[in-house]
Write a structure and sequence with these properties.
The protein has a two-stranded antiparallel sheet with strand order 1-2. The chain is built from 15 helices and two strands. About 70% of the residues lie in helices and about 0% in strands.
């Protein structure tokens, strides 16, 4: 059978299977793992969480069938995310599980000459430290950005679609996320929860560590994802400057402040997705310098919409820490 039709079949099968599985899972997850509205959340009604378990299960089955085992190494952290969605486990245990999962991934991929894990682990403890610091940062950045309907799901579809030419077997996860997006777009019927966001962040890191194109390839992927990473990073830095606990839940990210100031979830999510889509075109059809320039221009655009359309950063601090 023609390779194009095989890939199309994988995409359609994974998206349709996710769609029908979610129709069965939504009422179950709403009873078992409900996301309760809170002062630091962005939703007003109870909705089912941990919906990421559906696209993780389907993708895992497909990659076993295809003999591509790297995504399976992200499963431990998704299990921790599932437990956290249900029982709200300690931050230290969450972080330890991230480090443990990343170590497994590093050990699995580092023997391939020329990939990022191989290059850095040759420097000993310092190399491992850099990889773990980088990996845990990316995982948590993706997790931080999963706060409104459709933002991470839509963004990761574009990111994986962009990387599909460099890494094998990404069409099935693109398909599963597409099926999930139908229920996750505003007004959403289900959230992926930490189950899904931690898995996606970890899988993205595993792809970066296994990249045979080295550090430059990772830099390009960072630029591709910069609308997500810069929002998370700048929010952390601003909270540090304001002497706030960066590990405490809040609504200080730009995307959260845009929604808090009246923009719809779908509008805000679309801004991020379209920004990444623009960077995707530069990634695929131009060079690293132009990718950096466009990433910087999107950063400037972010400053503009922050000033013009977002709730002031200090107002979110006042509302979240009224006694400080």
């Amino acid at each position: 059978m023609n390779q194009f039709f095989i890939k199309l079949l994988h995409f359609l099968f994974s998206s349709l299977l996710t769609f029908f599985l979610l129709k069965k899972f939504i009422p179950i997850l709403k009873r078992k793992i409900p996301a309760i509205p809170s002062v630091r959340g962005m939703h007003q009604i109870v909705k089912p969480s941990s919906g990421g378990i559906t696209f993780i299960l389907i993708y895992s089955i497909l990659v076993i069938y295809q003999g591509f085992y790297l995504p399976l190494l992200s499963l431990p952290i998704s299990l921790i995310g599932l437990i956290d969605d249900k029982f709200n486990i300690s931050k230290l245990f969450r972080f330890s599980s991230q480090v443990f999962t990343l170590l497994i991934i590093i050990l699995y991929v580092k023997n391939e000459p020329g990939n990022v894990a191989n290059i850095f682990t040759n420097y000993g403890f310092g190399g491992y430290f850099v990889l773990l610091l980088f990996g845990t940062s990316i995982i948590n950045f993706i997790n931080f950005m999963d706060g409104i309907d459709g933002l991470i799901t839509g963004s990761m579809i574009v990111i994986f679609l962009t990387l599909n030419g460099e890494f094998h077997y990404l069409l099935p996860i693109i398909g599963t996320l597409t099926g999930f997006l139908y229920f996750n777009w505003h007004p959403s019927k289900i959230f992926m929860g930490d189950t899904g966001s931690l898995y996606l962040g970890t899988f993205l890191v595993s792809l970066m560590f296994s990249s045979s194109s080295g550090v430059i390839s990772n830099f390009r992927i960072i630029l591709l994802c910069s609308p997500l990473f810069l929002d998370a990073l700048i929010c952390i830095l601003r909270n540090l400057i304001n002497k706030r606990n960066i590990f405490q839940a809040h609504k200080s990210h730009l995307y959260q402040r845009l929604v808090s100031n009246g923009l719809k979830h779908s509008v805000v999510a679309s801004i991020y997705i379209l920004s990444i889509a623009l960077l995707s075109l530069i990634y695929l059809f131009s060079n690293t310098f132009n990718l950096f320039i466009f990433s910087f221009l999107i950063f400037l655009f972010g400053i503009f919409i922050d000033k013009k359309y977002a709730l002031e950063f200090n107002k979110t601090l006042d509302s979240e820490y009224p006694n400080s």
